[in-house]
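Fold this sequence, please.
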Amino acid sequence: MADYVIALDQGTTSSRAIIFDREGSVVATGQKEHAQIMPRAGWVEHDPIEIRDNLREVIGVALGRASLTRHDIAAIGITNQRETTVVWDKRTGEPVYNAIVWQDTRTQPIVDRLAGDAGIDRFTDIVGLPLATYFSGTKIVWILENVEGVRARAEAGDLLFGTTDTWALWNLTGGPEGGVHATDVTNASRTLLMDLKTLEWRDDLLAEFGIPRAMMPEIRSSSEVYGHARPTSLLRETPVAGILGDQQAATFGQAAFDAGESKNTYGTGNFLIFQTGTEIVRSENGLLTTVGYKLGDEPAHYALEGSIAVTGSLIQWLRDQLGIISSAAEVEELAAQVEDNGGVYFVPAFSGLFAPHWRPDARGAILGLTRYSNRSHIARASLEATAYQTREVLDAVNADSGVSLTELKVDGGMTANDTLMQFQADILGVPVVRPVVAETTALGAAYAAGLAVGFWAGLDDLRANWQEGKRWEPQLDPAERDRQLRLWKKAVGKSTGWVDDDVR
């Protein structure tokens, strides 16, 4: 009898395979980082072949560490960095260009062209998203317009598009030899090309963007059997039965299924999702309207999302570009060497500002520096930037929903940082709660796959698995909180208006 489910978590910095048991506990993990390719300012790419090969490798590592075989695995779930865009030849499986990552800002001229006089909200009523470099649609256009010969091949029906869930699914189920070309509604809702009401690609939008429909994957639910692992795979014949974009997967893994429930994930970026049930809620405060999940033939569930581009990747920047730490874990130790930020504020607008500002003209800024400032203050300001940005997004959620959250469920790698989590509770003024199983992104994909094959009977089984791991209560004086927030907002204002025609 198969007693486990495996999730493939294709993230921004690494690919992982995680095996879960029926209680939602981690049994074994395989993980491998992939290269971050940055050929020029604002450009961020990944090698799709490296990602494909890493996924194959981590499956073997996880199975080996657990001493399991394919016969022990009931289903495979996939979760992924969402908007990152891959275009490849369906006959050979060869990408026509590197994957363009969600953080990449090269498509701003395409955004401006599409927005025209109507502005960035030109298609928001249909797709729930503003026109921005963040989403997949403009990345497809860039590849079609800038890689030699690609448009003709796409119009001839030879090329396929997918976010990395689609790339993983296609390769896992056969690649050029019958691989399934599909995505789920959560990932499709991040392209600028799917109608939120019909859950289908819009032909008028595809025409407006100049994207051949033949490139587009089939849109399916988040929990169903899409196909089976190819005969040469270590997981051969195992059903691939769940797909959720990483932030929706983390929400699902937190057992936040119903309207009014939410979570905040601390990863490469931060993403707060607030469930709105089967109702499509339009934000008036800079949030995105997105699909939360869809289970088989059941109605889709929607959500509001606050997306923050740079949080965990700022700590990576301190390590790789600035060199003031040698590992991400050191940032807490360095920040703890000072009592406060010393008046230093760090706005990490490396890709502009996402929610709730949507300012592509912003760039990173460190403000408040004096001779007193040192690397510990910069480390502390880097951690605090994550908490301040989350506060801004939560304020927008409260304004849109009309209901103030009484606590915040959190997950992701940065939640291991006690200094950050305590400051997050302080700056929010509400408790912050982390579950026992912090791997909620992979767990959500495992849950979606397990539900599709009957491994779990229903959502109540998943709710029963959730357990509180740690809680942080706010301790900061409200007047001091207000003072720090005022200075943060001043710093954000200083970071905007930087990019113009003379800035590269």
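The radius of gyration is 22 Å. The first helix runs from residue 48 to 66.
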